[in-house]
Amino acid sequence: MAMIKVDNLAVAYGHGQNALKVVKDVSFEVAKGETFGLVGESGCGKSTVLGALAGRNKTWSGSVVIDGEAANPKRTKSQLAKQQMVFQDPFGSIHPRHTIGRTLLEPLEIHGLDRRQERIEEVLRDVGLPHNFRYRFPHQLSGGQRQRVAIARALILKPRILLLDEPTSALDVSIQAEILNLLKDLREREHLTYVLVSHDMAVIAHLCDRVAVMQDGVFVEVTTRENLLKGEVAHPYTQTLLDGSRGYVPARQRRGLQSVGHA
Ligand SMILES: Nc1ncnc2c1ncn2[C@@H]1O[C@H](COP(=O)(O)OP(=O)(O)OP(=O)(O)O)[C@@H](O)[C@H]1O
C-alpha cells in the first residue's frame, strides 16, 4: 500500500476571477520508505504541493490519502503528527529566544506525550547532537547544527513521513553532504517516507528514488534516480534542468555528495 496517494490535486490562491491556479491536477503515489522528489524552477508550485500534504494549505481540491486514511483539508491532531515538515532556513523556523530543549518540548506538550525529557535526549542523540545542546540557544549553533535541531523537532513526534522543503540549500556544500547523510540514515533506521522539494538536481539525484519534474503547476515527467544519473529523460524541460546542473553535479560529487548517494 502506498504511504501517500494523491489524485487530481489542485491548489489556487485567491478567489473568483483573481484566483491563481498554482497546482493543476497533480497525481502521484509514494511507497513506504521511498523518497519522492519534486524539482522545478522557483514558483512552479513545489512548496504548495508540500503544504497541501502537510495540512498547512487548506484550499486544495482532489484526494490525498496518507497511510490509508483520507486527509481532509482540516486534519486531526494524529493526522498532523504523522507527517512533519523541515524547512530550508532553520533560523526562521526555530524560535530564536527559546533554548533547544524548549523548542523540542513544545510539540510534546501540544500532543500530550509522556517521557518528555527522555524523548528530548533520545532525539538529540538520533540527530547526532550532544544532550547538553538542550540548554543552548539557536544563535550558539552552526547552520548545520540548527538544521539538525529542526530535524529533531520534526522527528520527536515519531512521524511516518518527513516533508523536506529545500532542507540543505541554506547550508555550505560540505555541511549539505552531512545533513543528506543524516536524512538517509534516519530514513533507514526509522522506516520513514520522504517527499523532498529541491531546485538542485544534485540533491535530488542523491536522495530520491523517483522525482516529479514540475513546470507551471503540472508534472511534466516522473522519472527515476537511475534515469536522471544516466541522463535518460523524456521531457525537454527535464533535459534543460539536467543541462543546467551539468558540471556542477560532478564538482559537488567530488566534494562528497557522491559518497552520500551511495552511503
Ligand atoms: N500564500 C500565497 N498567496 C498567493 N500566492 C502564493 C502563495 N504562496 C505561493 N504563491 C504563489 O504560488 C506560486 C507557486 O509557489 P510555490 O512556493 O509553491 O513555488 P515553488 O516551486 O515552491 O517555488 P520556490 O522554490 O520559490 O518556493 C508562485 O507564483 C507563488 O508566488
Automatic annotation (TrEMBL):
Keyword ATP-binding attached: yes
Gene Ontology molecular functions: ATP binding; ATP hydrolysis activity
Domain of life: Bacteria
Gene3D superfamilies: P-loop containing nucleotide triphosphate hydrolases
CDD domains: ABC_NikE_OppD_transporters
Pfam family, one: ABC_tran
SMART domains in UniProt: AAA
The entry's keywords: ATP-binding, Nucleotide-binding, Transport
A GO biological-process term: transmembrane transport
Family assignment from sequence similarity: Belongs to the ABC transporter superfamily.
Protein name: Peptide ABC transporter ATP-binding protein
